[in-house]
Amino acid sequence: MAKQKWYVVWAGHEPGVYDSWDECLRQISGYSGARYKGFGTRTEALSAYEEGYAGYQRRHQVAPEQQALTEVPLGRALVVDAACSGNPGVMEYRGVYLRDRSVAFQMGPFPRGTNNIGEFLAIVHALALIEQQGLEGMVVYSDSAIALSWVRRGRCKTLLERTSETAQLFALIERAERWLATHRTTAPLYKWDTVRWGEIPADYGRKG
Which of 2, 17, 106, 188 lies at a C-alpha separation of 20 to 30 Å from 119? Predict the structure, then answer.
């Protein structure tokens, strides 16, 4: 399921909010020091644009140990992402091996969820897969600072309402939280640097 995305260009030929990757690409191509990011809703994009790049970065700081400090992504990695049609809305998530772009796992769609829940579940799924398959030296990248903070704390702090429609999803959330409480994760978790590296390769709406 492709998802509609909006792109904020803080620094580019013509800064603004754009509703297609192609238009965003035109604004940043050949522009030294371009600053941009994709968002799942127009409201999020407009808010991020208004507060400016520095303000947005401060508000979405991740723990020092989760900051990507390399110039390029580490090749031996699982990258994860979620897609949500509406927020909340129909949601799915997946993990992709960065080196060859092959899909490691894909879950959903679920009838009602949020992007952050999907990101949280995808990260835990990736950690469990790495442990189960003994993938030593593998790291996990997510572009969600919120989901990374939830995993770090071991709790999915969602405000999604518990209903019969979300029962399956909450069962997965509780299982993921139990896994985090009973396993010592050794695979490093890093925030994908969208500004430097572009969209995360697991992104459902990724173009070309």
Answer: 17
On whether the CB atoms of residues 68 and 191 are closer than 8 A, the answer is yes
Query: Is this structure's pTM higher than 0.90?
Result: no
- Torsion angle, alpha carbons of 158, 69, 105, 138, to 10: -130
Dihedral angle sign, alpha carbons of residues 199, 102, 188, 132? positive
The CB-based long-range contact list for 46-52 (8 Å cut-off, 24+ gap) reads 46/17, 48/8, 49/8, 49/10, 49/15, 49/16, 49/17, 52/10
Q: In this model, does residue 60 exceed pLDDT 80?
A: no
Convert the pLDDT of each residue in 76-119 to its tens digit: 999 999 998 877 899 999 999 999 999 999 999 999 998 889 99
Query: In angstroms, what CA-CA distances link 134 with 117, 127, 129, 137, 187?
Result: 26, 10, 8, 9, 10
Using alpha carbons, list the distances in angstroms from residue 179 to 2, 114, 172: 30, 21, 10
Alpha-carbon gap, residue 31 to 144, rounded angstroms: 26
Question: What is the distance between the alpha carbons of residues 141 and 189, in angstroms, rounded to a whole number?
Answer: 6
> How is 62-129 classified by DSSP, letter by letter?
--GGGS--SSS--SSEEEEEEEEEETTEEEEEEEEETTT--EEEEEEEEEEE-HHHHHHHHHHHHHHH
DSSP code of residue 14: S
Distance in angstroms (rounded) separating the CA atoms of residues 82 and 65: 23
Strands 6-11 and 16-18: antiparallel
